[in-house]
Sequence to fold (104 residues):
Amino acid sequence: MPKSVTLTTGLQFGSISAGVEHFSAMLDAQDLKEPFAGADEEHIRAAYDAYCAKTGWTTPSPAATFQPVHERGPGFTTQCFGITYEDGSTGRFSMQKALSAIAG
Fold:
């Protein structure tokens, strides 16, 4: 039986893969480095905050914005969620890892 995901915003997914598909579509629809706003931002923040709480992930300061970014490494490029923190530092996170961690 698939694990479901419910965010504090009330957004629910019957499976992790359904959540990943939802957030992947958001990444595809948003211009690179353009911060998310409105309900999209609220849902991303809810997933990120739940992930940090569940895993004990520490951040340099509270997250200010979320935006699509390209992550590059040896032999790969992938699109993921970028974070700009209130102190001006930046980071990134995988929505698949976040949803997998918080699924119940």
User: Anything to note?
Assistant: The mean pLDDT is 95.
